[in-house]
Prior knowledge:
Elements: H1 3-35, H2 41-66, H3 70-80, H4 85-109
Keywords: Cell membrane, Membrane, Transmembrane, Transmembrane helix
Subcellular location: Cell membrane
Transmembrane segments: 39-60, 72-89
Amino acid sequence: xxxxxxxxxxxxxxxxxxxxxxFILLLVCSxxxxxxxxxxxxxxxxxxxxxxxxxxxFWADAWNRAKWPLKTAALYFVxxxxxxxxxxxxxxxKREAEDAVIASRARRExxxxx
Length: 114
């Protein structure tokens, strides 16, 4: 994996958890808006909107650079629209990055899978 691909995956990973948190907080604010006098939806809506747009941009870049199959790319996109999906995306991206580092070290050291 080259440095640009690793950077694209890292950016996506770093935005996925905050995007999930903002989604959950937006849902909480929506409930509070309808049940109390508190209205945090305009602020949380803007924050979540920015984070969601960043997630989609970083997702598209990671898909392009990592050459994911359509199924993998679709999974990461679907995870972005689920309230806790960003946490699962972050965990999978971390595992994918660790596997890529291990494979890169093995190639560099000349270790061949038997």
